[in-house]
Design a protein that fits this description.
27% of the residues lie in helices and 13% in strands. The chain is elongated, with a radius of gyration of 27 Å. The longest helix has 19 residues. The protein has a domain of 34 residues. The protein starts with 15 loop residues before the first helix and ends with a helix.
Length: 92
């Protein structure tokens, strides 16, 4: 266990070994909570940057694309399943 000193302004310095182990980087926001008399620090949930609906445009299939016939869809699925099955078999 490492000991730290609280400054007159209430600041503490998180030791480098702890920062490295917990992947704490400069500017990172941490949540602080008191649980059963203990102080807990954890990164905020902003590990994934926020996004917008418009940023996701184009990730889904184009609405104007040509639809596959039922026969073609079944044929493509069968080929994909056959490739997956073949990939699980040992080479001979």
């Amino acid at each position: 266990m490492t000991t730290v000193t609280v400054s007159s302004e209430g600041h503490i310095l998180i030791p480098e070994t702890v920062r490295e182990r917990c992947h704490i980087t400069p500017g990172m926001e941490l949540e602080i909570a008191v649980v059963n008399g203990e102080i807990h620090l954890k990164p905020t949930l902003a590990l994934i940057s926020p996004t917008t609906v418009s940023a996701g445009r184009g990730l889904l299939a184009n609405q104007n694309r040509k639809r596959l016939s039922e026969t073609e869809l079944k044929s493509r699925m069968a080929r994909a399943l056959h490739r997956r099955d073949a990939a699980t078999k040992p080479l001979q």
